[in-house]
Amino acid sequence: MTGRRLGALLAVALGVALAAPALAYLLPGEAILRKAAEKRASLELTSVEAVGALELRGAALPAGTPPATTARLLVKTPGRARLELLLTGGTESDRPAAMVKEERLSGRGGLEQNQAIAALVRGLATLLAWPTGVEGKALGEALARRGVKVDEVSLGRFNGRLAWVLGGRLADPKPAPLVLTDKESWMPLRLSVVEGGTSYDLRFLDWASAVGADRIPRAVEVWQGAELLIRFNTERATANPKLAEALFQGDARSP
Question: What are the helix (H) ranges across the chain?
Fold first, then answer.
C-alpha cells in the first residue's frame, strides 16, 4: 500500500471517529428525561443542605459583600431552592438570602435582585428540586418553563464528559436554552438559560465527590459568556434535612 493511499485511509478513519458522536443514535428527549428521573429517584432525596465556600465576582458581587464568604445552599422538593450568606456577626434572620418557591423569586437583603444569583437559585430549583418520580414528566415540565425545547436532542461534550443535549446544539452560534445530562451517569451537568434578559450558564462539576456524593456536585458555577461570576464549593452536604417552609418565603418578585 502506497504512502499516499495509507494517508488517505487514515484521514477517512479520523473523520469518521470525529463524526461518531454526531452520527450516533439519539434517544428521544422523553427517554433521556425518564433516565435522569430514575437516577434522581433512586437517591430517595426530598431535600439537600450544602455548606461551603462561596466566591462572587464582577456583576455577581453585591455592594458591601465580601468576594469570598461561607454560604448555605438549600434544595427542597417541589420547586424550592435557597442561597444564604453566612456572614459573621449576623443572626439567622439578618442573613442575606435569595430563594425560589414554585417559580416565585424572593429574598432578603437585596440578594435576589442580583440576576446571576437569581439564575443560580432558579437553576437549582429546576434541576434538583422537581418531585422525584421515574417518568420524568416533572423534570421535563420544569425545563420547558425555562425555555428548553426538550424534544430537540443532540450530543455534546462538557468537562471531558459525553452528554445528551436537550434544546439544540452546543455548536450553535447563539444557543437556545439548553440542558446537558451526562450520558453515562444521567446526572445534570449544565443549564444555559436567560435571566432578566441576560444569558447565564449554570455548571455542575464533579458529581460523586467525597463530600457531595450524588446529592449535590462538589462545585456549582455560574458563567456569563467567558466570565465566571459565581462559584460554590461544597464542604459539607446533608441528605433529607428538615427544612421549614419559611426558609423559602419572602417578598415575592417576578416569576
Answer: 3-23, 29-42, 115-128, 137-145
Nearest to 34 by CA among 144, 134, 179: 134
**Residue 253: which of 107, 112, 106, 116 has the closest Cα?**
106
In the chain (255 residues long), the average pLDDT of successive 10-residue segments reads 52 45 76 93 94 95 87 96 86 84 92 94 94 81 94 95 95 86 96 92 96 95 96 97 91 51
Q: How far apart are CA 161 and CA 85, in angstroms?
A: 32
One-letter identity of residue 164: W
Q: Which CA distances in Å does 188 have to 35, 111, 150, 205, 214? A: 11, 26, 14, 9, 10
Cell of 195: 435571566
DSSP 116-163: HHHHHHHHHHHHH-SPP-SS-HHHHHHHHHTT--TT-EEEEEETTEEE
The residue ranges of every structural domain in the chain are 26-248
Cell of 157: 461534550
Tell me the β-bridge partners of 198.
195
CATH number 2.50.20 is the correct assignment for the domain at 26-248: yes
